[in-house]
């Protein structure tokens, strides 16, 4: 009884902050369990050349197959583990799973050597063991040509510590992998910075693509990024291509690579081979060229 009273009194002094700490701890425990019980899955979204019809690869996007809440998107759980070592564990799982997937697609004999890009946080990339870990994962998959693995790093975070990030990127490139700068245009890249970062692919952020048909500022940014990529001999891909109007506008601007719901939504691995075989670029996209 005394214990009960004490408990109640304690509750009187509970603050919202205590509740938040408790919620965060519970969320972390849930993710711990999810990792242990293999509840995470990778979905894959095709990246295509709208002009040639070639599927250039797929991007791996993590999902949580939650037993009660269904399929959860990364914004629901990545922020929870942002400053937790579990984020490294998850990042390693993503790399592992992507390498196994490349290997499986190669083995199925569909003549589909499909490259996979994975999203890597800047914190993970800068972890002292990152390149060693990557080398070990690649060594565990000798059948996979490392060129089929691409690491996507956010433009904003790559620039935060450009010197260190550049040297780690170069070590990883030495192992054979490629880099892409994700959400490009949202950061503060100067020409000098972009030139120093050894990423061979620039991904135009979807926010610019979304409004490019109505907003002349966004259109100008897209034109600028395409010109920038051309002069530095980088590839450029548009994210968030939702309609054929976006697709044909981008083609007219000289951006042939695209990814977005207008081409395909992220899908489970099993659906990828059939999708690739059946995909033909929409003629109406290229008609106006
Ligand atoms: P991102 O890397 O920029 O990925 C693109 C996001 O846009 C994905 O959301 C994708 O489903 C969505 N998307 C693709 N096409 C369209 C479109 O046409 N319209 C719209 N509105 N959205 C489109 P998703 O899968 O929810 O992922 C969100 C972000 O979470 C990713 O942005 C990435 O930063 C992060 N993320 C996803 N998977 C991983 C992962 O395995 N590791 C890490 N560290 N981050 C991840
Ligand atoms: Mg990405
Ligand atoms: Mg992006
Ligand atoms: Mg994004």
In words, what does this structure look like?
This is Diguanylate cyclase (GGDEF)-like protein/PAS domain S-box-containing protein. It is found in: Membrane. Residues 24-280 form the EAL domain. The protein has 289 residues and is of the alpha/beta class. Helices cover 48% and strands 19% of the residues. It is built from 13 helices and 10 strands. The protein has helices at 2-12, 16-36, 86-107, 122-125, 130-140, 155-160, 162-174, 191-196, 206-211, 216-231, 244-253, 272-278, 283-287, and strands at residues 40-49, 55-66, 70-72, 116-119, 149-154, 178-184, 201-204, 235-238, 257-258, 267-268. It has an 8-stranded mixed β-barrel, surrounded by 4 helices. Strand 1 and strand 2 (55-66) form a beta hairpin. Helix 3 (86-107) packs parallel to helix 5. The longest helix is centred in the middle third of the chain and has 22 residues, at 86-107. It is globular. The N and C termini lie far apart (81 Å). The model has no long low-confidence stretch (mean pLDDT 90). The structure holds ligand C2E and magnesium ion (3 copies). Residues 45, 61-62, 73-74, 78, 94, 119, 121, 152, 182-183, 206, 239-242, 260-261, 266 line the site of ligand C2E.
Tell me the layout of helices and strands.
Layout: H1 2-12, H2 16-36, E1 40-49, E2 55-66, E3 70-72, H3 86-107, E4 116-119, H4 122-125, H5 130-140, E5 149-154, H6 155-160, H7 162-174, E6 178-184, H8 191-196, E7 201-204, H9 206-211, H10 216-231, E8 235-238, H11 244-253, E9 257-258, E10 267-268, H12 272-278, H13 283-287
Parallel strand pairs: 2-4, 4-5, 5-6, 6-7, 7-8, 8-9
Antiparallel strand pairs: 1-2, 1-9, 1-10, 2-3
The chain binds ligand C2E and magnesium ion (3 copies).
